[in-house]
Amino acid sequence: MALSRRALLSLLAAGLVRPASVQAGADPSVDRSAVPSFATTWQTPEGRFQAGLVSQTGDSLQVHDLPARGHGMASDPTGSRVAVFARRPGDFAVVFDGVTGRLLADIFAAPGRHFYGHGCFAADGTLLYATENDYEGERGVIGVYDATERFRRIGEFSSHGIGPHEICRHPDGRTLVVANGGILTHPAAPRAKLNLAEMAPSVAFVAASDGRLLHAVAPPADLHRLSLRHLDVTLDGSVVVVAQWEGNPLDQPPLVGLTRLGAPLTLVSAPQGAQQRMKNYCGSVAVSADGRSFAVTSPRGGVATLWRYDGRFLASSELRDVCAVDAMPGGFLLTSGEGWLARLHQAGLQPIARHGRRFDNHLLRLSS
Questions:
Q1: Burial environment of residue 23 by CB neighbours within 10 A (0 to 12, 13 to 18, 19 or more)
Q2: For 241, phi and psi rounded to 5 degrees?
Q3: Residue 330's pLDDT band (cuts 50, 70, 90)
Q4: Residue 124 predicted with pLDDT over 90
Q5: CA distances (Å), 281 to each of 136, 304, 336, in order?
Q6: What order do you get walking across the sheet with 152-158 strand by strand?
Q7: Which of 56, 62, 216, 253 has the most CB atoms less than 10 A away?
Q8: pTM score, two decimals?
């Protein structure tokens, strides 16, 4: 259950809940310029929720306690500040220094809003954008926070849809790309889906300066229950979006979409066997560093699929409860809820290490 701002502050004052804090700061023995580091969240064997930085072998570079379960992360263009957002319908976010580990800010959702779990920084690092729910107004909004003034909330604008989930910065520096999942929710019934018959998912291209809608795409009417939830953007502006099907579980609709600013949405499917293993549910997507391929995870099916940049299916590999993925040298790094880290490339999946922690849904690479 999400804590309200007032309840969380009361618990903090009473000493019953610890704020997000550094348990182990940046490890001085690790040269981050030589070893890729990844921001992620997890649950410890004792049940504590944490976020931090890990190496590609899962070794902790930073550890921060969280008051509840975390979800997605965002970093500024230099990688020096990392924001971690609560899982929907959470009402907290934290920002820490990606180099020193120092806590920079606690962020609480505005009244009548909660976080959807994702955000991104402006191209110049001065603003932080977060996907949020105006749950009484039944609309999605993008909260805007001043990253130069302890992340004070300075406004919001429409996400141009319901249920905005992942948001990414377009390489033009002026546009935000938002995956509107289309599902109406309310924190009074946190996991209930209230509008499945009227779902209207979309990908919206929004002006970062004032929230104007520049372009939007949506699945065809017969696939209106294809909830578009996660996306990634290549350096040339191509967008890969992945979906979770809220319709008949016996159907096997395409779960991967390709688009760009000003272009339509093209949906693609994997071959039948791989499509079945995806279980109508994609958990995350990441584009390779060179933009030539992308990886999609399906935790319910325990499968990670690899695709060419144009949507041609390349390969699939199995890893139970796999979800988090991001690019790494030579392929992609995966983590699972069973504590595994693995490398994915076209030749297959290579286990790297296993840890006791339960890795959560997302990874964010900070350095190369």
A1: middle
A2: -125, 140
A3: confident
A4: yes
A5: 28, 11, 15
A6: 113-121, 127-134, 139-146, 152-158
A7: 62
A8: 0.91
Tokens read off for 116: 């959807």
Q: What Cα–Cα distance (Å) separates residue 226 from each residue in 119, 165, 202, 223, 306?
A: 22, 14, 9, 6, 21
> Any idea what DSSP says for residue 36?
-
* Pair of tokens at residue 103: 């806590």
273 CA to centre of own chain: 27
Token code pair at residue 302: 């325990």
pLDDT at res. 206 = 98
14 CB-near residues (< 8 Å, 6+ apart): none
Task: Tokens for 121, please give them.
Answer: 């920084």
Burial 255-282 (b: 16+ CB within 10 A, else e): bbbbbbbeeebebeebeeebbebbbbbb
How many Cβ atoms are within 10 Å of 249's Cβ, its own excluded?
A: 9
Residue 150: partners with Cβ closer than 8 Å, 6 or more residues away: 104, 105
Element (H, E) at 272: helix 272-277
The answer to whether 35 and 122 have CB atoms below 8 angstroms apart is no
